[in-house]
């Protein structure tokens, strides 16, 4: 079954074909800092990206993802198991000032990176999404900054997207340095139990949304806008406050 972000098959229709989309723990949400509880027992998350073997870019009609092979591991924070990186992708909007799926106190960012990790005790994505602790997704906000702060991984990703046709896949050589897509501070984050933000919308995700943003340039935002000829937003609207 197909879905998109338009009028015909957009998020408001998903529950008709994907019952999980009507659940009580759906994502994304507005992260309201005034109603949060500080948990001093939580440790910083640990992201070990030293054992990557391959990155494969998949370009679809309206978006893209990068499949990751190897043993990049997420642990710590609210997690009680180790999680293995499966893929990462971006969400962005039809303008330069909004596009992130999550908001903080009602404020959006131009884009949001999602790094999708699978709980190692479940092995496969198909199995993991059937458990409440099956996945952990690390969300990273991107904010606009000066070209002097040009992120090399984003710059290369834009170049790759310009030379890869929709429907094609391409090995990324040399591999992107994923550490540059993460902020320096991994100790400040928002965490909650939620769902996949795209169908089948299973409520299987421990969300870890990092507080510190990463800088992207206006040219990089424009890259995503024009490559995919955006006339609509490619993010799910907020499900609750």
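-> sequence recovered:
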């Amino acid at each position: 079954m197909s879905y998109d972000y338009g009028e015909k098959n957009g998020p408001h229709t998903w529950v008709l074909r994907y019952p999980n989309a009507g659940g009580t723990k759906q994502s994304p949400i507005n992260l309201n800092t005034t109603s949060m509880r500080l948990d001093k027992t939580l440790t910083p998350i640990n992201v070990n990206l030293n054992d990557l073997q391959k990155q494969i870019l998949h370009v679809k009609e309206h978006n893209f993802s990068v499949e990751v092979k190897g043993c990049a591991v997420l642990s710590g924070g609210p997690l009680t198991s180790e999680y293995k990186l499966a893929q990462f992708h971006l969400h962005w909007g039809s303008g330069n000032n909004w596009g992130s799926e999550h908001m903080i106190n009602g404020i959006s960012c131009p884009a949001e990176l999602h790094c999708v990790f699978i709980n190692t005790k479940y092995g496969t994505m198909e199995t993991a999404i059937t458990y409440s602790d099956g996945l952990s997704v690390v969300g990273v906000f991107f904010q606009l900054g000066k070209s002097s702060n040009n992120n090399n991984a984003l710059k290369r990703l834009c170049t790759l997207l310009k030379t890869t046709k929709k429907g094609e896949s391409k090995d990324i050589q040399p591999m992107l340095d994923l550490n540059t897509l993460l902020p320096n501070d991994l100790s400040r984050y928002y965490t909650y139990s939620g769902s996949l933000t795209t169908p089948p919308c299973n409520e299987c995700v421990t969300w870890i949304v990092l507080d510190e943003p990463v800088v992207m340039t206006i040219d990089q935002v424009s890259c995503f806008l024009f490559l995919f000829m955006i006339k609509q937003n490619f993010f799910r609207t907020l499900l609750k406050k």
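The chain has a mean pLDDT of 91.
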